[in-house]
Design brief:
43% of the residues lie in helices and 17% in strands. The chain is of the alpha/beta class. Strands 1-2-4-3-5-6-7-8 form an 8-stranded mixed β-sheet, with helices on both faces. Helix 1 links the parallel strand 3 and strand 4. The chain is globular.
């Protein structure tokens, strides 16, 4: 991030810290878990060099961004964060939203609720709900989601902190097999070592996957309203076939463009996992720049 500057901006009632590079149309880059804006360390300079203002904030609750006073971590609220950041950063209708993991889930809400804000979008590794819903309750996927169920327990916070968040290293190892995630894990640990920030990050899981509601008809209906509406924007979707967090095959991937705007495309990487943007930065960056550069 040597080429980037840092800043703090208030949006949707939260003080967001961010990295920024370049000038031009806004490209907002949102991370997920267990992650940080450092995932975009290769993409931000590439975007700046192509004539964009690239901004990568720390998500709400991820240090040094503030823990929100309202403790809200539902995807509608996170999507509102993205649109509030768009406004606070002076974004216009030519802005682009790039998002991964939790950022991807919230991006569906942001893009559908304020379509005039975003000209194009790039989403990776979390498909739209019509596709996600086909895999979430399969036996193999339930095994991959073991950590979600563990995070519902109050003891999860103490366990994670007692081991200095080494659990996160295991997730990166499983989700992006063969990738040396040492640098990325250190950055993620720095975001979450403070107990309040760790509790905030787990709040995403405890809200969206609340066992009292998850899978019930009312949960599905609410999720479809936020995460399941067709996107109006032309969107590029990435997925790595070695993703150990959420596995989809080419047949499911072929369904994704129908959930998005005209001209949407899916890019499947055979030899990449969940964190493909740092696993194969040259390939991913080039594809992103080509896609968002179209008019």
């Amino acid at each position: 991030m040597e080429q980037c500057t840092t800043g703090v901006i208030r949006a949707n009632g939260v003080d967001f810290h961010y990295y920024e590079a370049g000038t031009g149309p806004l490209v907002l880059c949102m991370h997920g878990f267990p992650d940080s804006p450092w995932t975009y360390r290769y993409l931000l300079p590439a975007l700046a060099g192509a004539g964009y203002r690239a901004v990568a904030p720390f998500m709400r609750g991820f240090a040094p961004t503030a823990v929100p006073a309202d403790w809200r971590y539902d995807m509608r609220t996170i999507g509102e964060d993205f649109n509030a950041l768009h406004a606070a950063l002076g974004g216009a209708g030519d802005a682009v939203l790039i998002a991964h993991d939790w950022g991807a889930v919230a991006a569906y809400a942001a893009l559908s609720s304020a379509p005039s804000n975003w000209r194009r979008a790039v989403i990776s590794n979390i498909p739209p709900m019509p596709v996600f819903g086909q895999v979430v309750f399969t036996y193999e996927q339930l095994k991959r989601f073991f950590y979600i169920f563990f995070f519902q327990y109050d003891c999860a916070e103490a366990f994670l902190l007692d081991n200095d968040l080494e659990f996160l290293r295991g997730l990166w190892h499983d989700w992006s097999p063969g990738y040396d995630a040492s640098f990325d894990v250190e950055k993620a640990q720095a975001c979450l070592r403070d107990p309040a920030h760790l509790k905030a990050a787990l709040g995403y899981y405890r809200t969206v996957f609340n066992p009292r509601h998850f899978g019930r008809p009312d949960f599905v209906a609410a999720g479809a309203e936020v995460w399941g509406r067709p996107l109006p924007q032309s969107t590029l979707y990435f997925h790595g076939l070695r993703d150990g967090c959420l596995a989809i095959d080419r047949t499911l991937a072929a369904q994704i463009p129908a959930c998005m705007g005209p001209g949407s495309e899916t890019e499947i990487l055979d030899d990449a996992g969940h964190f493909l943007i740092v696993e194969q930065p040259a390939r991913v960056n080039g594809r992103i720049l080509e896609f968002i550069g179209r008019r």
